[in-house]
Amino acid sequence: MSSYKALTMNDIAKALNLSASTVSKALSDSYEISEKTKQLVNDYAKQNNYRPNLIAQSLKQGHSNSIGVVVASVDNPFFSQIINGIESVAYNEGYNIIITQTHESHELEVQNVNHLAHRSVDGMLVAISTETQNIEHLKKLQQQGLPIIFFDRVTDDMDTHKVTVENFKSAYDSTAYLVSLGYKRIAHITSLDDTSVMRERLAGYEKALVDNGFEVDQELVKHCHGTGRDRTKLKEALDELFALNDAPDVIFSAFDKITTVALSLLHEMKKSVPEDVALLGFTNTILADIINPPLTSITQPGFEMGKEATRMLIHLIKDEHLVTKFETIVLPTELVVRDSCPPKK
């Protein structure tokens, strides 16, 4: 459906066979209403996600001309680029955006999504958190008519438009590239979470190894926390890799934070990159070409992802008909060759 219609007092009145005046008074805890009726009204309101919405009440057409955005963290360069892409389309179309951060917490994601709904946003752009397994909070809002589009982290549990990148292909091609350079012990550091992004990248890495005649050595696969901020856990993973009898000659990192933090830790561990171990990973940091050594990296089209997702969302918001056919856009990545991963001597 075209736009989100928040639950109103009239809706509650009709559902409970009460007058709108009675519902209004019950919600405002008026002495004129019995405790039993107050309980009935408030229970229904709570169960159906009702909140008084002063913004919506002040809008003649019931639209706020605002879009809610849910990301893990705005300090991640990739998400920052996506937000820039979102803004470039939204502002030109007359929409403001409200940005919320989950910090990879499912509980915070639920709170943020509900807060945005209560602000009467016209639609939402969501990258689900790494903790999120259950998306009932999003399904419920979609069923009530709120357009929701997933980007980057997507799920098959809900039918809607989605925008992502070639996660499997980019991991496959990058691993095959490492093999072509002569690397034989290719470690992979990925996340603890089970998001579509991490699953596809791990699968691409494993398939490329098998297709190139290598066995998948699980000792070379390390799972770390999704934010990449836990240096202690990542340090433990690196220590375990270098303690192997046959240590890795290259590390392939599955996401941005791990790539840059791993480089920092390797310097602290007195491991020279690329002499002691080469490094290749996903990263959208603008510093990739000036840090020491410049990072061979897979860059994702964050700005384009934001633009595409926003175009699709605004089309949904404006569409007067119920949309039942949805599209998944898969954008290409780019492998940028620099100094951290030279041909193996």
From TrEMBL:
Taxonomic superkingdom: Bacteria
UniProt cross-references to InterPro entries, sorted A to Z: HTH_LacI, Lambda_DNA-bd_dom_sf, Peripla_BP/Lac1_sug-bd_dom, Peripla_BP_I
SUPFAM superfamilies: lambda repressor-like DNA-binding domains (SSF47413), Periplasmic binding protein-like I (SSF53822)
Keyword list, A-Z: DNA-binding, Transcription, Transcription regulation
Residues in HTH lacI-type domain copies: 7-61
GO terms of molecular function: DNA binding
Protein name: LacI family DNA-binding transcriptional regulator
